[in-house]
Amino acid sequence: MIWKAGDNMKVIQCDVAVIGAGSAGLSAYRAARTHDKHVLLIEGGAYGTTCARVGCMPSKLLIAAAETAHAVATADGFGIHVADMQIDGKAVMQRVRSERDRFVGFVLESVDGIPEADRLRGQARFLAPNRLQVGDDVEVQAARIVIATGSRPAIPDGLRELGTHLIVNDDVFDWEDLPDSVAVIGAGVIGLELGQALHRLGVRVAVFGRGDRLAQIADEAVNQKAIDSIGADIDLRMQTEVLSTHLVGDEVELQSRDANGKTRTERFRFVLAATGRRPNVDQLRLEVTGLQLDDKGIPLFDSLTMQCGESAIFLAGDVTNDRPLLHEAADEGRIAGDNAARFPEVADGLRRLPLSIAFTDPQIASVGKTARDLEQNSYMTGTVSFDNQGRSRVMRQNHGLLKLYGERGTHRFLGAEMVGPRAEHLAHLLAWSCQSGLTVGQMLDMPFYHPVIEEGVRTALRDLKENLLKQVNDIEHCSDCTPGI
């Protein structure tokens, strides 16, 4: 229902208001609509999800071009000699932008399918727990609200003075040509993926990591293998602090200091800030909702219901600062939208096993629980190196390490961390096994073809099984040692 209130303020009443039309917001809208509720979708920026516009898809387009260039550049390892390879930066970026726009177009078609009366454009902010102001002249009165406002790149204060020479991943995919040099600040997933791709496309790249961990890898051995493998391909500088940056003509002069205290001064065309993302909560005026907020200003919420306390407000997607991945955002949106529509009778939703992948070369992946999540002495590990794994050597992709975790006593498979060839596929295989609750023995009973990379998983499973069995006392092998039997 819509009516005028006051001189110029239009008031809209609805059952559920969803703030944000990204992956989580669209999922929340559709879930709430299945309950035959009046749902309003509010968006303050351009339609089209982070994944389609500046995330998953355009980055993979750039990576695909880089992989092709790398395959040609290293073909001589197979006895195939390619003379005078040339990388046309304008053509590379033209394809990235064109295909990116196609993916965004699919999202826009989906949004166009939503009734116009259910869509509202403008920045939203809370006036009360159940009231929003959108733009300057609209008030939304909603019985329940889903916050799905996403996130944005976090930019260190010391870099802001660089103006147009400071870029974030969003900017890369609008380039019309490849630059000659880029300094990447941050050795997380975004920094590694883009840094390695640009390097392989002929851009001079240095990746600066302040800490000693790549892409939040928990296991020390896997992390070191990732550093060694990826560092052999690109200029990767871990435990290095950026001391200063300033403009000199049309370049950025950057001074850094490594772990040994050695300083270095260089010039780059651009500085790419890949230092994480910041949830978009600062413009929402959440203080008027009465919700309990964490130290980053994000409402505390139940990850199974997405409900904030006992309120009629729900969170979904990257704004939660929990699992900033597309499949998680879609799941959270579905749960939040469903529970917003059924409020106050909320229910736990399906949260899938944690699964994350970095599309570097070699790829990095994490499945389920790792040493960071497990109690000491509650698990055993099994490992395999890909350095001499058969199919990996055939493809000249024999770099990496896989570590598996199994529960002592039950032998239940708990999770894995890896850096290695085609880890995206191994990770899915292991995630399905783990979410299905399989034991290590049951996984070993599954078929393994030859020669495939998955045989490396079998080797690691055998190692894990042997280590688990070492913990079994002789008496546990006795089927029934009850006296008198």
Automatic annotation (TrEMBL):
Known cofactor(s): FAD
Residue stretches making up the Pyridine nucleotide-disulphide oxidoreductase dimerisation domain: 357-460
Segments crossing the lipid bilayer: none
Active-site residues, Swiss-Prot/TrEMBL: 450
FAD/NAD(P)-binding domain: residues covered: 15-333
Ligand binding (FAD): 60, 149-151, 318
Pfam families tied to this protein: Pyr_redox_2, Pyr_redox_dim
Cofactor remark: Binds 1 FAD per subunit.
Cystine bridges: 51-56
Keywords from the UniProt entry: FAD, Flavoprotein, NAD, Nucleotide-binding
Residues engaged in binding NAD(+): 186-193, 276
Record GO terms (molecular function): flavin adenine dinucleotide binding; NAD(P)H dehydrogenase (quinone) activity
Annotated SUPFAM superfamilies: FAD/NAD(P)-binding domain, FAD/NAD-linked reductases, dimerisation (C-terminal) domain
Domain of life (superkingdom): Bacteria
Family affiliation: Belongs to the class-I pyridine nucleotide-disulfide oxidoreductase family.
Protein name per Swiss-Prot or TrEMBL: Dihydrolipoyl dehydrogenase
